[in-house]
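ok so for the tutorial part 2 we go from a plain amino acid sequence to predicted structure tokens. step 1 is just haveing the sequence, like this:
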Amino acid sequence: MKRIAFVLLLITAVNVCAQWEVINEGNLIYSIDFVNENTGWATGSGNHILKTTDGGDNWEVIKLNEEWTIGVLKFYNESVGWATGGKAGVNFIIKTTDGGHNWTIQKELSEWFNSIQIIDENNIYLSAYNTLYKTINGGSTWEKAGPPVRDTIGFNSFWFRDTENGITTGNYFDGNGNVCIIFNTSNGGAYWQEKKTYDFYTISDIKSVNDSTLIFKAYEDTLSFLCRSNDMLQSWEILAQWSGWAGNFSFTDEDTGYVIMGGSSGSGEIMKTTDGGLNWIKLPSPGINKRVSLLNIFSAGSDNVFIIGMQGMILRSTNGGYDWVLKKHAYSFYSSRFSDKSSGILFGGFYTGFHETIPSGDIFTTTDGGKTLKPVYTSNDVFESSEAVSDSVFLASGRSIYKTGDGGKTWNIKYTVTPDPVGSMFGRDLNTIKDLTHDNKSLWGAGRNYDPILKKGKAIILNSTDSGETWKEIWQKTDSGEGFFNYLTSLHVSDTSGWAVGSPGLIVQYTKEGWIEYNSLTDLPLHKVVSFDSTVWISGGYSSEQSIFMKTTNLGATWRKDQGIPYVINDFVFIDKNLGWAVGFNKDYRGVLLKTTTGGSKWEPYLSDLAGPLKSIYLNGNNAWAVGERGLVIRTTNAGLTWVDDNGNIDPDNYSLEQNYPNPFNPATVIRWYLPHSEKVKLTVYDALGREAIVLIDEAQTAGVHKTTFYAGNFPSGVYYYQLKSGSFTETKKMLLIK
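step 2 — the prediction. this is what the tokens look like for a chain of 739 residues:
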């Protein structure tokens, strides 16, 4: 008979104020400029610009006037720069003299400007669709400097060698086809000489390599050309020719240049020359989704190269384009899983095509808590959920369930739903697996599938008892045919209970008879369910005006429904029965992080007005991450559960065993513990004499917070002890069973 000697150390859980940091918050990027290898700026959608002083490793977000939208920007040095933008239907030219932190409007105009060239700090040129403006006094006054305006001519590009000599190109339709026009000036735009060319129908993107050499793009029929001129476009030579569309290009010097080609996939292929354009090599792909178009490439000197892509992406290479790192983005994330505070996987996706109905998804890994991402897997699927089985085994789901056994390097499909030929919302197929979870025995999934026999869609619950290798459908509810689509979005399963929620107002409860549909409490779509002992929380809603948060403390016998919350809560976690975090969006579709210390009775905004809605939150010990649209990644290393010993010393990186709750109890109680890293765990219950009563846990577990329920229905009343062993750690606590 096993007996133990008890040495009890009081450990208490206290609520220490969590500090959340925004790891990434993105917007669409339109323009980028560097004045040297370290200092640069980028701008796009939203009322802010980005600035880096370390070559693009880190980007500072500079907030501007809330009504402004910035188009393009250009800097003369680290302090002085100009930008174009607009507000409330009025366009403007703005200037900064402190590196972009403060800006003043110099002129309001009706045109939207698309290009800036700085000759010196006094002489600057701007171009619109068919207008050129210039200043000779640093922007104090502006005047038109373009060729005579003709409605049929649109300007494509311009360049000035100095304050007097410049060129601009345009094109028009003469009734038979497109005609390309080149305008030259030698007196600062007062007079322009016109020249037509039939070699190309468009010349654009004129850039200088030095004071005499220009590189430009040209098009004719289905061909793209990269050309060089040494005489202000009086003549030129073709450096390269491709079939299809040629994107942006950039030259570091006369020899080294980069160009983005359209490619058959539409995403863009990156080409490089080191001999002035005579020969080109294809550089490695950045590894991002092929439906993410590469828009712009910029060489900041030496081997420092940047690419701007759709989804607000800024990619950087420090070795001339042979390796790429994602530094900034507005990619939509749906879920994340981290094995420790640095190493994790992020899951996301987006929709393209007409009405945005074509799904695309990516899985990224990170080793610095989400600051730097590496794309590892791309699919024609949006990854809506994920689950960590161990430190190296993860699951992801969308239209399929994917599994990795090597920490995210490779992924294999284990289950796929049947596409629904009828049921769709705004053209998107609703048949996906929207949530994954696990208990101590098996894995679970919830979502929607199609029944080809009944020819109807249905909400489903899946179960796997072999670590996700195979999946079995164990519950379903088919569509009624009344215009409502049944689907489940979330489920929460413990050793003794289970809940699943979805739409329209669908609630399913796990009982002794299995999964049974629960009486409807609302017709609103439900997003998330979490259970803790006899307490269950459910969130849902369409908008901040139509949202709901429900709670029961007696396994559903009675419910409290709050419908006055001015937020839609997409996801939430509870540290204990009182302390919880939630994520979602407000009435302006801006992201919010909410906190409750009252068990969900009241939610207070902790972070608000984020770039987009937050989709999910993940808790691993004291570390927590929330992710969402517009590339949002926020993180804390102190989510609120901090373990403090008798002397008040905080030990967030050590093993901890929590006091069971409730205590005293009858007949069940929950035991929680924290592991700083993955290790084998044994949790044993002993009676008052030190005899082993039952082994609750005896398995390897991942780092983080864990819990189990001790059901003592067959045990007599009295004092019991529970002991946690993991590695060299041993902790014992007392509990009282009263019947």
